[in-house]
Amino acid sequence: MRVLDYTLVLLCIAIFGSVIVDAQVYEDQVGKIDWNKQLVGKPKFVLSTSNIPSSESNAQDKPEASAGASVGADGGLIVATEKNVLASLDPESGKLNWRQVFESNDVIKVIKYVGTDVLSISGGSKQDGKQEKTIRMWNSRTGALKWEHTESSGKSRWGADILYSALEKKTQEEKQKSEGDTNKRLIVLLGSSVLRLDVETGEIQWRYESEEHISVVFKRMVQNKDAIFVLGDESVGKTGIRVVELSARNGEKKKSYLAAVGQSLDSEDLAILSGGEGEGRGSKTSSYLVWRPDKNIIWNTHRLGNDKVSHEIYHAKIFQLELMPDMMMTSKIFGIDVDERVSYIGLSYSFGSRHKLVVARLEENVEGMVDFNKVTEIRTSKPLFQRKHITVNSEGQLVSIIPRKDNKVQYKVIEFSEEDTTGQEIKTIKSNSKRGNIEQAVVVSTKGGEAGGKGGASKVLTVTSDGVMCMYEGNHGKEAQQLWCRDEVLTGAVGVAFVNKEIAKSSKLAGFDDHMKNGWITNMFARYKRHLSELTVTNMIQSTFKSEDKAVKFGISKLAVFIAKGGYVGAIDTVGGETVWERQLRLSEVDELDGMESSASSTTQQDWIEPTAIYVTREQTEKKGALVVVVGQVTESSGKKKTVVVTMEGMTGKIVSRLSKKMNYLAKKVLETNIVEPETEQKIIVLVDSKKNTADYWPTISATTAATVEAANDKLVAVVVDGDEPGSTQLVGYKIGGQDDIHTLPKMWTLDLGKSNSQVLHTAGLAADLTVASIGKALANRQVVYKYLNPNVLAVLAGSESENTLTLYVVDKVSGRILHRATHPNADLTRSTGLVLTENWGVYYHYTKDTNNDKVGNWILTTFEMFESDKPDTLHSTTDSFSGYDDFVPFVASQSFILPDQPTALGLTTSHSHITLQDILLSLKNQPLVSIPYMQVDPRRPQSTKASSSSDQPLSQGIPAAVPILSISPKQMISYSVDLKSISHIVSTHTKLESTCLVVAYGDLDVFVTQQRPSGSFDQLGPSFSKSNLVLTTIGLAIACVVVTPLVKRKLLNNNWF
């Protein structure tokens, strides 16, 4: 009896030690969307400011858009951004009111206020190669589209401009002369066409088609009285500015001639002064071209409409300046137009280490020539001052930005008006030392007061190099008050990595991977030891009664560390979306790195490190903190690019200098491994030199551990594949060899795709730390089909434009053998494609055209899965390892499905122990983010119901038949009603809950984070569960057993005696 009891106890202990204990979560924490960011990008254009009149009868024509933003007619901040977005922001808080996202091939060219509405011109190349140009009128309050007009042409280069006026006809004589002309005049330049459109409907009232459209690219229009001057760059024969004069009333051509010979409208040596017909000083001036020939000290002025006369003015006479010849020849000019009443011209130049901006006013003299009279100037000795730091909005308000070395930026606002010559307001902004430098500022509104800022204030919108928009108000004090900031840096995100907040027991990252490699007896005793340590009385009491963040404990709250263009690195909490830390990787902050060129002596245009990849190389433990490695590029003064490796503390963002270095080469490839360097306890990454074909380990390993690393390297990261980037026509495999500091890369194989006129579109490999929970799949008849598990598999999507085919290659990276090939005919390679790979299966999508109609087609999602054999219970190799050179090809099952919408990104879910089934994450263009169960697109699904029970397809037994059109239910839409735009990347990370993973979707605009449970919440606890009650009940039962056991034994003994 006692032997049986002991046997049962040992059996319970063995079962207890072999069970993997997982965490559980409470029911009220399930299914919550954590956060999303709707972004717009860095401002690109500015409209006229808040002086739009309530009545259009006396509205003045505003000049064209320029870089920045403006306050709209309803008080909203209207911006057009680098990400092709037209949006309205709340000027008091920066919150998004509305946005319109344009297609990537429909680039916004110009925007302008037309009354209280916003007119945009956009366009680009379409599928047939033609240029499509679209004019749209938007309601500035709601963002609703009022009307649009579209035209097509075959010319790739074209310009756009807008003129609008709402002038009141004061006398009966003027009304008779107008010949029915309305007081609202909207004229649009669209390539070689000039159109007058009805403001309310967009109907064409007259059209002019340029006869010089073949040799001229028209870009600008200038209106002076009843004449419209259309300006373009002449590119054939004698180059210069082509001027075409039209009648504003009927579009009749009056004259066409060439001016400013040798100049271009894009030159910084040429300015366009619109002139105007206002009253008072400088009234009724004509419109002028002003330019300086290259390497010359003489300026030329040309009055538009006068096709014979141009005047020369010596440089020094323009602004009454005494300049040396080198100052004259390096100066830059720009026009400043104020309500088309008075024209000003700006001149910026340098002398030694000092910079000066001089502003002069254009005035016509009695001799029919022009004078430029100096009005004001700005001086600075700051070395960072450049022409880009000067911005003029359409109201003639000029802002100059002067960076200072004390993390502050001084800006000066000069406001031009008729009554007073200038008003100058000088304010200081305290900039964020951890973010990019302010590179742009624009006045968006002004408050009343005396000129010069006395009693008044300006609102200035600033933009940093890494995408932070801030609104400042210059009150009476010297330092401007920040009203709000809006961070748009994640519109340029290029990568993300996840740092666990929970302290790990060990810094080793592949704990479950060890479980798969070790024997079951070793695993049993390891788990038994771990369970005992977790079930001590101290741990039970602490875990029962201490207050802790369950989101951190379960791994739901992590730090998502993003890298973005402009040198940005920042950590955001996955719960709530709050920024924990952020910084810009500036050259000045990493000057102390080994081999880094001093930023003081550098003459490069950018002062930051451009990040390209990010890795978490060490998790946080009780003794050591988490480490994040950012790999980036810097451009030296000589123009050469070098790779920089920067190691940062994952929880704080502090740079670890001793683990950071600038390489003396540009790495063409960075490989992540699952090998841990013993001294620093970091995962090793491999850097491949782009020219010498050598590889470096980072962090640098010691000689004593080199042999160990190389031994692991032979199994895990032995091969480097070159040519796997889009556009390549050849794949080459190299083997990392040698145990010295420099590792040679001898060539092993070559796969030439050029023979079939194909080039690489996408590649996907297996993750370095990928683990597999099962080696096979059970069929309905209890047989097992074994997975083909090869860690050196590479999937390649290649396309041939000449044959309109898309081909999937599955390649062994060790031998270069093609394990599987599948070709799709009638593929449209101008559309996007996507590819992901995991374990023994993968997913990709493409667009297929109809064979009878090229304009009709479908988006196709294809899944493929590799098995050891098409027969159940069959294994190719029964050993732990096999050779890539074996003459063995896996059996591949494949299936295609029609998608309901265009996909933009593809991803997969993951889990802690890889037991939970994986879902396919798909971002669709006009639908929410969806999660598709793998069973729905299982490639083993038969084509018909009869085939699922047929013995001819043993792998499909018990699986329902496939449906050719993929249907998506509302339950699969994990972003619900959130409006996500321009999603191009979907990544996931596991939590400590086996059922739960975190999904992060990002791209050119939005960021979205949520939790996903592909197999349901099987580790969910109800809200009534209480750990303390469970512990107390267990203790009570144990005490009751101790007390009752002697009583029961005594009773049994008495029963035996009596």
What does it look like?
The protein is mainly beta. Among the domains are: 753-898 and 930-972, no CATH class; 1026-1058. Helix content is 11%, strand content 42%. The chain has 10 helices and 67 strands. The strands form 18 sheets. Strands 3, 4, 5, 6 and 7 form a 5-stranded antiparallel sheet that branches. A hairpin with a 4-residue loop joins strand 45 and strand 46 (694-698). Helix 1 (2-18) packs across helix 6 (520-534). The longest helix has 31 residues, at 1027-1057. The protein starts with a helix and ends with a helix.
Low-confidence parts: 1-6, 15-22, 53-71, 278-283, 418-423, 448-455, 508-517, 598-604
Q: How many β-strand runs?
A: 67
Largest sheet: 5 strands, antiparallel
What is the beta-strand fraction? 35-45%
Q: Which shape, going by the Cα principal axes?
A: elongated
Radius of gyration: 35 Å
Total of helices: 10
SS-based structural class? mainly beta
User: What distance lies between the first and last C-alpha atoms, to the nearest angstrom?
Assistant: 23 Å
Q: Would you tell me the overall average pLDDT?
A: 79
Please estimate the helix content.
10-25%
Name the features.
1058 residues; mainly beta; five-stranded antiparallel beta sheet; four-stranded antiparallel beta sheet; 67 strands; elongated; disordered N terminus; endoplasmic reticulum; transmembrane; EMC1
Question: Any chance you could write out the topology, listing elements then pairs?
Answer:
Elements: H1 2-18, E1 25-26, E2 33-37, E3 43-45, E4 69-71, E5 77-81, E6 85-89, E7 96-101, E8 107-114, E9 117-125, E10 131-139, E11 145-153, E12 160-165, H2 172-177, E13 185-190, E14 193-197, E15 204-209, E16 216-224, E17 227-234, E18 240-247, E19 253-259, E20 270-273, E21 288-291, E22 298-303, E23 311-314, H3 315-318, H4 325-329, E24 332-338, E25 342-351, E26 354-364, E27 370-380, E28 390-392, E29 397-403, E30 408-415, E31 423-430, E32 438-446, E33 458-464, E34 468-473, E35 481-487, E36 493-500, H5 511-517, H6 520-534, H7 537-545, H8 550-553, E37 558-564, E38 568-573, E39 579-584, E40 610-618, E41 627-635, E42 641-649, E43 655-662, E44 667-677, E45 682-689, E46 694-698, H9 703-716, E47 719-722, E48 730-735, E49 743-744, E50 747-752, E51 759-765, E52 776-778, E53 784-786, E54 793-800, E55 805-812, E56 818-824, E57 834-838, E58 841-849, E59 857-867, E60 891-898, E61 903-908, E62 919-924, E63 930-933, E64 983-990, E65 997-1003, E66 1007-1012, E67 1020-1021, H10 1027-1057
